[in-house]
Amino acid sequence: MGNVYVIGGSNLDIQGAPFSGLIMADSNPGVVRCSFGGVGRNIAENLALMKDHVVLVSAMGNDAFGLDMYRYCESVGMDMKYCIQANENTANYLAIMDAKNDMALAICDNRILHCLTPDYMDTVFGSMKEDDIIVLDTNLEEDIIRYILKHANHRIYCDPISTSKAQKILFDMDKLYMLKPNKLEAEMISGILLDDPNDYRKALQWFLDSGLQQIIISLGKDGVIGADRNRMVHINHPYMPMKNATGAGDCFVAGFVHGSMENMDLVDSIKFAIASAVVTVQSEFTVSELMSKEKVCEVMDTIDFTIREL
Fold first, then answer.
1. Are 306 and 224 in contact (CB under 8 A)?
2. Distance separating alpha carbons of residues 216 and 196, to the nearest angstrom
3. Is residue 70's pLDDT more than 90?
4. What is the rounded distance in angstroms from the CA atom of residue 101 to the CA atom of residue 78?
5. What is the pTM of this model?
6. pLDDT for residue 33
């Protein structure tokens, strides 16, 4: 099993949650929490807690937030040799939650990621072994994403993050091994609505025809659909109570990647990814303090999965 090179954002997450219904354009009594985040960094931390060897390729500032985050990432087992420490402000992600603990709106300032240049990526590629893989988030600037997709000779797993940022990979999907959009992102990319289960197979086939080897689409309460070159499936499970939805998607990606690294098949990788997300949403933190391979397996055994071939 090789190493996982996670290339993406590292942020200071600031999250505000109201005590009751969110009132826009007003001051809401509630709770404000700070934690370390960023899609790439979150994925990397979850993988490190699952005991995969993770190399984080990102950028952090030399300010107090960045220095603390760098030390924390080292402490949980991430390899930080390719994480740039720049004389700039550490990236920040400000999220406002609603009364159901779903995100109502957010602002992300990750301008520091311009430090990841083509020359720097060549240095990273030069250190990689044949069986290493890349996990990519689309917080990176479009030109560096396209450079990575053109020059990396490794399997690339990608989280498109949002409908706007997903546009950065629209013309290079044949260079990706796996893509994990949510319903809105998948509809934007493919132009196929997913309101009717009869369209699931059509959408999955569209992505495979675009060059992907694996496509995994999260449908929220309607579960997950996924496909590789051998099968297409729809996997669902009963509703799981949650304390905090932030970070669930990042952990899902980490869980799927971990399953792939452990040579799980498509269905088992998706089941492991779902269980990883369940562990996350039952925590108040973006990355669960209980995260481990053993904990995910324990939770996975308690979930009543429904699996339907498409």
1. no
2. 17
3. yes
4. 29
5. 0.92
6. 86
